[in-house]
Amino acid sequence: MSPDAADPPRIAVVIPCYRVRAHVLQVIASIGPEAGWIFAVDDACPEQSGAWIRAHCDDPRVQVIEHGINQGVGGATLTGYRHALDSGAEVVVKLDGDGQMDPALLRRFASPLLSGHADYAKGNRFHRIGFLRGMPWVRLVGNAALSFLTKLSSGYWQVTDPTNGYTAIRCEVIRELELERIARRYFFESDLLYHLNQVRAVVADVPMQARYEDETSSLSPARVLAPFLAGHLRNTVRRLGYSYLVRGFSLASVELLLGTLLLLGGTAFGVFHWWSSAHTGIPATAGTVMAAALPVIIGFQMLLSWLNFDVASEPRQPVHRLLADEQALRAR
User: Fold this and answer.
1) What band does 219 get if pLDDT is binned at 50, 70 and 90?
2) How confident is the prediction for the chain on average, in pLDDT?
3) Handedness of CA 221, 227, 228, 229 (dihedral sign)
4) Where are the domains positioned within the chain?
5) 152 with 236: CB under 8 angstroms?
6) Would you give the distance in Å from CA 206 to the centre of its chain?
7) Model pTM?
8) Closest Cα partner for 33 from 121, 115, 123, 107?
C-alpha cells in the first residue's frame, strides 16, 4: 500500500507510555507520514513521559494525554482509542513506546484493514523460525500455552502470539465494542480478542520480528499467571454459553453439552470404581470397565466434532463492511 501524498491520512497511532522515557522519542520520530495523528498516553508514568514528550518533541501530529491514576496498558490504549475516534482516522494502530515494535511496519498492519480484508490485525512473532532469534525461552514457552488458552476463550483458532501488543483496528469496530468491559491491564490483548469475537470481527495475523534491546519489562509471569487463567476460564464459559446456547443453538450445541456430560460422567464413574477396587481388592468386572470407557469414548468423539465446528465458525466476513453498508442504507 503506497498512499498518495495528496490523500488525507487515514491512520492514527496510540502509544501507551509507562517507563519508556529512554525510547519513546525515537519511536515517535520513526513514525512515517502515513500516520496523521499520534496519541501518546502517559499512564501516570513515574518518569513523566508526557511532560518529556511535550518538552522534546515538536511533531505537530503528537497529542499527549495524561492519566492521573495508572490504568495499565489496556486502560491507556482504550483512552487512545477514544481520542482517535474523534480524529477522523479510519484505522488505529497501537504500538509500545519501548522500542520493541518497528514503526516502519505501520503500513503492513494497516493494509489489510484499509483494503477491507480484516477488522483487526495483530503481530505474529512466530510466523517464521528466523523471527524467534533473540526471543527469551520463557516467552516462547509462555506464548505457546497462552496461544492455546486464547484460541479456546476467544474462538480465533488461527491466531497465534495472542499477547502481541502491536495491533491495528478499524474505528467502526471500536465503536461496536463495549470498551468499559475490556480488561485494563496485561490481560488486555487476550480479552480484546474475546470481545472482537462477540461482534464477529475478522482478525488477521501480521508477520513481524520483535526487537529486544536494553528495555525492561514490568511484566512478572508469577504475578499475572492466576489472573490470566481466571480470565481465560471466564471468557471460555461466556463464549461457549452465549455462542452455543443463546445466539445459536445447533447440532454442535448438543455435541458440546452431551459430549461434556458423557466425558465427565464416564471419567467420574471409572475413577470411583477404580478407587473402590483398589481399596477392596475386588477387581472391576468387564461390564463396569465398559460402562466407564464407552461414555468417555463417545463423549470425546462428540467434543472433537464440536471442535471441528467451532474452528470452522471463525468469522470470515469483515464486520466493518457490514456496518458501512448499514450506514449507507440509513443515509438514503
Assistant:
1) low
2) 89
3) positive
4) 11-242, 250-331
5) yes
6) 13
7) 0.87
8) 107
